[in-house]
Structures are given as structure tokens and as C-alpha cells.
Design brief:
It is a single chain. The protein is mainly beta and 792 residues long. It has 5 domains: 21-212 and 318-365, no CATH class; 377-465, Immunoglobulins (Immunoglobulin-like), CATH 2.60.40; 469-557, Immunoglobulin-like; 566-660, Immunoglobulins (Immunoglobulin-like), CATH 2.60.40; 665-792, Immunoglobulin-like (Sandwich), CATH 2.60.40.10. 12% of the residues lie in helices and 36% in strands. It contains 12 helices and 50 strands. Strands 1, 18, 19, 21, 22, 24, 26, 27, 29, 30 and 31 form an 11-stranded mixed beta sheet that branches. The protein is elongated, with a radius of gyration of 28 Å.
């Protein structure tokens, strides 16, 4: 059974057999531009086939106008989201779905004695993240920086981003570096591949895993001295080393291995090999390249492009994005095919073979392809046959593959894609499920052997947690929809007062349902376009008034790559609450749904955050860096315009990690005459002595008057057009007026407030809310609430 074909059951607990292959979905972070229809389709397919956990897909545009701009925005957000999601040490590959560029301009940042350096391969800007200081340091350092993971002695070494490398070995020395292996799934622009060819590459690569294919790596020595000579002196040794690795290789005097139909790899040096017309066959899982200047310079017509290898049947290829000169270290070393045969993933084998850091070198293909995976077998006991509660003890057993390592070196426990524990063989993992939301979660136990290649496999299970009797379901109105077609999701939450229910595509919020009566029941409408074509997994998450959560079972939806006649429906934007795990940079989703083409939608931030710097972002994402000392809740208001109209403004309440123990958002704001309701935020602190608490509000009608008040306890009682969240002993703090955008802020100065009963003391808990004028109905409404516990 391949990973792509595996289907999870719908019983309370479904446990998979130990995977035959590496089960490497947790190792890759996939970056996809949510405004790029082809990128979404490819990303959805890759995530499904490789079983990437939802948190391992990052939705943001990876492109930038310059490397400096990318380093100051996308790279910061990328590294920050790894921290936010708890993935910094467990992700080894950064994989880009096709985007609008294959390179990032980098004029004058690094030097080369042969040819000016003007470009970096786009994935390399992310994988070589530790080099940004060198690149932007103004020293004009050489582009021929050593790749510290490279080691030219034919030895394989399983890659880990959490260790630092020097001379191909883990090191703590001063020159050691850490990386993420950079890769692109494809280039779908001019002279690239079609989307169909990229999807086919993914399919054959997954199917090649653990098949131990027979075939030959062909090392081609040509008469082109400039392109063949840098490598062909290594070919005799490569053939011998391949034999020692248990494989076959031939050193041939030709451009291509014509007449051969078992090519597991081709290494040649020629400007324009007849890849399309040549009579030879590349086997699934193969890697092929032709050392030449413009193989990955897709905007230049000269020379044959590396995309032809993918069209021919390869799982991976590499080339340079501009004239690199014929330095051997900028191209794959002949050892690539040898260490690949010894069991490294294809991306590992390519990166291991690069003598210089691949600033200008682009890998295209599936870096997780592992035909020679000598994976251990893994089983886990300790799971009951139904819902689980309290403490769960999982006891793994693992056995090395006969051709892999001699023993199991490490066990790792993953929950929803995040590594939460690790230990040696014999370890039992104790998981406190009280720390998890009620509902459905993915468990994984990965066993890694002690071989240099670090062969590994992952046991997986899906488990339902039931500690507090909470639940949420998500029922789609259709199992398949077209891109422009709308469908409904019926959301039903139970087990407590619900503040909101959000719909997640991986870790990305795509819709939300605010709760007016605490039930969390209702319907949200989405369009297939918002999710992208392909197989899509959606999860509903209910967020309760006391801070608890519940997760639904996954909903599988097939979004067809097809359009229907437009109906002219008005776009809709969704607000929600986002709590940061740390105050590291983040990617903030701005969810909306519409039937118009993605490129026709304009996203406008009406109110930017007060305590964060907007690094960049376009469309449905905003790249943010919290300012030093960011504390409390920021309000980000946005709207979306398509040819069919403009949405009501939606508000994201961004909750900073600092201050989450002092205050929390409670209750729900109901819609008002201008949108989805007024929302509360705060900054400063909950210190009585500092007396610097400031309350902010957004989403009220422009210019209206209101009253800010606080009280004790919580409730959820209909009042006017909204809900009263304050339980008792209401105290007026200030009369306020909203500005032209419907926003306002006050500093109540509770230590010196003139209003009777307004003062607070350390240990007091108060709930704050805004009452404001609003047309229609009862002619007034209320914001949501903020519960604050004050300290000294």
C-alpha cells in the first residue's frame, strides 16, 4: 500500500500498519501562494500524496522583488511560523509549490570571479537561511561558500536540520551551519512543465518509494570539455562505488544513454541534449541533469531546460538560474547517485552532492522520493479501541530493516504533526490528553535506525479524545465542487458555550462562524476556489468561552479543476481570533470566499495592527513581526473587493503570547449595521501599579457614541442588537466616540478613575465591554468582551 492510497477510517480509532517506506511527511514544510491557482492544486496533491500534516503547509507568496526584501519579510515569517507551529527542529526540507518566479533577484550581494551574481534560486533563499547575514553584510563575499553538509568521500549521511554541519558531519565548530534542504515542485511558466507533468511527477515519485528498483545510473562523458570535464573524471570511481552500494552504473562515451530503458539516473554535460526525442527511458524515482549554464534559466531561450527531464519521467533534476561558470562545486557531484542508492531521500542526495551552497542552483522534483528506503518496522501498543481520556501510555516496538541499521537509535512521538517527545528504544511515551482539544487528532511514532543514512519509518493512528464531553462536526453539502462553485458546511458544536467555530485547511483558517447564542451551530458558505483544486482536507475547530477547544473529524472534498458560469455572488470575508505561541513573526490569514478568479480579488487592510510591523504580504495573508514588548490583543480589520463587490470589513483579533495569562477574549460580538460587529483589543499590562491598560475597539459604525464599562463575572445574555458579556456589578468607565473608520481606544486609568466602583486591586478580575449606538432594531449593540485578572 502506498502512502498516497492510504485512507483513514471513520471509527473512533483507526491504526495503520507500519509503513513500508519512510513516512516522511513531517520532514517537509510546503510553501504555497494562496493567490496562485496552479500552486494550490499542486500543493493539495502533494500534501495528500505525501500525507503532510496540516501544520506543515504554509500559505504565503514566496516571491519577492529582491533578496533583501525576501530576507526582511518572507524569510522572517517562514522562520517565525516554524517557531509558532513547533516545527523548527523537526522539519528538514522546505518545498515550494510552483509560483510566479523561480529565482529572486540578488544583484551585487555576492561575487564571482567569472560572472556577475544577479540571482539566487528561490528555494535556496529559504533553505540557506543562516547565510542572510553573509549575503546582506556588505562584504561582497564569494558565492562559492562551502556547503557544510557536502562530503566528497561517497559516504551517505541522513540529513537533520536540527544539527549543524561541517565537512559533511555533525559539528559544534565555529564554521558549522544548519540548513533546510531547498526544493521546488516545479516551474509551470514559460519553458517549464505543464501542471499535468508536475502532478504526474509527484505520483510516480510516491509510487517509487521502497520499491528497490533495478536499473542503472548512467554517467555520460561527452566531447564538450567545458560541460563534461568538470565531472567526468569522477565517473570511474562512481561506477565502483555504486557497485559497493549494491547498484549498477555505467560510464559511457556519449551525450545520452540511447537505447537504454532502465535509467535510474543520468549525469551528462551538454548544452542541448535531445531529451524529448532521445530513445531512452527514465525510471520512476530517477534523477537526471546536464551540466550547462542555462538549464534553469527559464526566461532565456538558449539551451535545453531541465524541465525536459521531468517531462521525460524523472523525479528530480537540477540546474542553475543564471550563468554560473563551470565550477564543479555548483553542480551535483557524481556521488549523488551512490548515496541515493544507499537510501538517502532524493533531496538529501542532491544536497549532499553540492560542494558549494546552492545559491544559484535549483532543485526541481520531489525531494522526499526514497526508492531504496530500508525502513524499520514500527508498532505501538497502548491505544484503546475507542475514545481516549486522561493519560495515555504508548509503547512502541521497532525492528531495523535487514539491510538498514543494526539497531533503532531513536523514537519520536508526533501529535498533529508536531514532535512532542523523543527517546531511545524501550521508551514508553506518556501523553496527557487533557492538553489536547476534545475530538480527533493524528498520532505518529517515528523510528530511526543507527545507520549513517538514518533509515526511518512512521506508525500512524487517528484517535478521538474525549475528556470534557465537547464535540464539533463539519458536514459539507457536496463531496465535489468546481472551482467557482459554492458549497455549504454545516457546523454543529456541543459541550459548552461556544465563542466561534473556525474551518481549517491544514493550519490555515478559511472560514469562521461566530456564535451568538453559545451553541456554535450554523452554516458557512465557501467556494472551491478558496481551497484550490485537488483533494482537500478540512477540519472544524470549536472554541469555547472557557478557552477549551474541540476538533472535528476530517472532511475530504474533491475540488474539480473546472469553472461554472458565474452567478455574481458577493464576496464574504471572515474574522476570527489568532493566538500566537510566541511573539515571533507570523503569517496572518485574511480569509475570504468568492467565485471570481483569484487574481481579480484585492485585499485591503483597513486597520493595521498597533503592536506589530507589517513586513509584507499580498492577498489573503499578512506577514507580521510583533514589536518589542507587544502585549495583549491587536485588531486587524480588512476587506476584500472582487468584480462582484466588496465585503463587509472583517476583524482578526491577534492575541500576543505575552499577556495570555493576564487576559482573554470572551463572549461574542454580533453583527451590526456595518459588518460582523465590534471587537475589543488591549495593550499595556494588567499591572495595577503601572496603570497602563489601554482598551481598543474596531468595527463600530463611524462616529457613533458609546460607553465602555466593566463588571464581574461572565454571561451571554441578549441585549439590544448584541450580547451582554459582563455578569454583574456593571461600572461605567468612559463615554467615547468612534472615529471615521469605526475604531477607538481609551486608557481607563483604573487606579485614578473618577467613576465610583471603577478602581481595581491586585487579584481582581474584571470583564470589559463596549456599548454603542447602532441603527436598526434596538438602536444599540455591544462588542465582545475581555476578561482581565489584575496583578500588582
Amino acid at each position: 500500500m502506498t502512502r498516497g492510497a492510504m485512507q483513514w477510517g471513520t471509527a473512533a480509532l483507526t491504526v495503520s500498519a507500519a509503513l513500508a517506506a519512510q513516512g516522511a511527511g513531517e520532514r517537509a514544510l510546503l510553501i504555497v501562494d494562496p493567490t496562485h491557482a496552479d500552486a494550490l492544486h499542486v500543493a493539495n496533491h502533494y500534501a495528500a500524496m505525501r500525507e503532510l500534516p496540516g501544520c506543515n503547509v504554509l500559505y504565503m507568496d514566496p516571491d519577492a522583488a529582491t533578496y533583501g526584501a525576501l530576507a526582511g519579510a518572507q524569510l522572517e515569517a517562514f522562520l517565525g511560523e516554524l517557531e509558532q507551529r513547533g516545527l523548527r527542529g523537526s522539519v528538514d526540507f522546505v518545498v515550494l509549490a510552483p509560483s510566479d518566479s523561480f529565482f529572486v533577484p540578488a544583484v551585487g550581494l555576492l561575487s564571482d570571479g567569472c560572472s556577475p551574481v544577479r540571482r539566487f534560486a528561490l528555494p535556496s533563499a529559504y533553505g540557506l537561511h543562516e547565510s542572510q547575514g553573509l549575503v546582506l553584510g556588505g562584504t561582497n563575499a564569494s558565492v562559492l561558500q562551502p556547503n557544510r553538509y557536502f562530503r566528497g568521500n561517497w559516504d551517505a549521511a541522513g540529513f537533520r536540520s536540527e544539527v549543524r554541519w561541517s565537512n559533511g558531519l555533525p559539528s559544534t565548530g565555529p564554521t558549522a551551519q544548519s540548513y533546510y534542504i531547498p526544493a521546488s515542485l516545479g516551474w509551470i511558466g514559460e519553458r517549464g512543465n505543464t501542471k499535468g507533468e508536475v502532478l504526474a511527477m509527484i505520483d510516480r515519485s510516491v509510487l517509487a518509494d521502497a520499491t528497490a528498483p533495478t536499473g542503472t545510473a548512467y554517467y555520460m562523458q561527452t566531447t564538450d570539455a567545458a560541460r563534461s570535464a568538470p565531472r567526468h573524471g569522477l565517473y570511474p570511481a562512481a561506477v565502483s562505488q555504486m557497485a559497493l552500494a549494491g547498484g549498477l552504473a555505467q560510464h559511457l562515451m556519449a551525450v545520452l544513454p540511447l537505447g537504454m530503458h532502465d535509467a535510474l539516473g543520468i549525469m551528462t554535460g551538454w548544452a542541448s541534449p535531445d531529451i524529448d526525442g532521445g530513445v531512452f527511458t527514465l525510471s520512476p524515482g530517477s534523477f537526471a541533469d546536464h551540466l550547462t549554464s542555462y538549464a534553469a534559466t527559464f526566461d532565456v531561450s538558449a539551451q535545453v531546460k531541465m524541465s525536459r527531464w521531468i517531462a521525460k519521467g524523472a523525479s528530480g533534476t537540477a540546474g542553475t538560474v543564471e550563468e554560473p561558470c563551470n565550477y564543479a562545486s555548483k553542480f551535483p557531484h557524481a556521488l549523488l547517485h551512490v548515496v541515493y542508492r544507499r537510501g538517502l531521500a532524493l533531496g538529501e542526495a542532491w544536497f549532499r552532492s553540492m560542494g558549494s551552497a546552492p545559491f544559484q542552483s535549483l532543485f526541481i522534483g520531489d525531494p522526499l522520493t526514497t526508492p531504496w528506503s530500508f525502513a524499520p518496522t514500527v508498532q505501538v501498543t497502548g491505544l484503546p479501541g475507542g475514545p481516549v481520556a486522561g493519560t495515555l501510555t504508548l509503547t512502541p516496538t521497532a525492528t531495523p530493516h535487514p539491510l538498514g541499521g543494526l539497531l533503532i537509535q531513536e523514537l519520536e512521538l508526533f501529535v498533529d504533526g508536531v514532535r512532542v517527545a523523543r527517546g531511545a528504544l524501550g521508551t514508553s511515551f506518556v501523553l496527557d490528553t487533557l492538553g489536547l482539544a476534545d475530538g480527533w487528532h493524528d498520532l505518529g511514532v517515528r523510528a530511526t535506525d543507527a545507520s549513517p543514512e538514518r533509515h526511518h519509518a512512521t506508525w500512524r493512528a487517528r484517535v478521538e479524545v474525549s475528556n470534557l464531553g465537547r464535540s464539533v462536526t463539519c458536514a459539507p453539502s457536496a463531496s465535489s465542487v468546481a472551482l467557482s462553485e459554492a458549497f455549504d458546511l454545516t457546523l454543529t458544536a456541543a459541550g459548552g458555550d461556544v465563542d466561534e467555530v473556525v474551518v481549517l485547511q491544514g493550519a490555515r483558517i478559511v472560514a469562521s462562524l461566530p456564535s451568538g447564542n453559545g451553541s456554535g451551530n450554523g452554516v458557512v458558505r465557501l467556494h472551491g476556489r478558496s481551497l484550490g483544486a485537488g483533494s482537500v482536507r478540512l477540519v472544524a475547530e470549536a472554541r469555547f468561552a472557557d478557552g477549551g477547544r474541540a476538533r472535528s473529524a476530517e472532511v475530504l472534498l474533491d475540488v474539480l479543476d473546472a469553472e461554472l458560469p458565474p452567478l455574481g455572488s458577493t464576496p464574504v470575508a471572515f474574522g476570527y481570533r489568532r493566538s500566537l505561541r510566541t511573539n515571533a513573526p507570523c503569517v496572518l490569514d485574511l480569509p475570504a470566499t468568492f467565485e471570481s478568479a483569484l487574481g481579480t480579488a484585492t485585499f485591503a487592510v483597513v486597520d493595521a495592527p498597533d503592536q506589530a510591523t507589517v513586513l509584507g504580504g499580498a492577498g489573503p495573508t499578512l506577514l507580521l513581526a510583533p514589536n518589542a514588548g507587544a502585549h495583549g490583543v491587536d485588531l486587524v480589520r480588512f476587506e476584500v473587493t472582487t468584480p462582484a463587490g466588496t465585503t463587509d470589513a472583517a476583524i482578526v483579533q491577534l492575541v500576543y503570547a505575552a499577556g495570555q495569562q493576564e487576559a482573554r477574549l470572551v463572549c461574542t460580538a454580533l453583527p451590526n449595521s456595518v459588518g460582523r460587529g465590534a471587537r475589543i483589543g488591549w495593550r499595556g499590562s494588567a499591572s495595577v501599579a503601572a496603570d497602563d491598560l489601554e482598551l481598543t475597539f474596531a468595527g463600530a459604525p463611524a462616529g457613533v457614541f458609546g460607553v465602555v464599562f466593566h463588571g464581574q463575572g461572565l454571561t451571554r445574555v441578549p441585549l439590544g442588537n448584541g450580547l451582554l458579556c459582563v455578569g454583574a456589578q456593571l461600572v461605567r468607565l468612559a463615554v467615547v466616540q468612534a472615529g471615521p473608520s469605526g475604531s477607538l481606544s481609551i486608557a481607563p486609568h483604573l487606579a485614578t478613575s473618577p467613576f465610583p466602583g471603577a478602581a481595581v486591586a491586585p487579584g481582581d478580575t474584571r470583564t470589559f465591554q463596549l456599548w454603542y449606538r447602532d441603527i436598526g432594531g434596538a438602536a444599540f449593540n455591544l462588542s465582545d468582551g475581555l476578561e482581565v485578572t489584575f496583578g500588582p
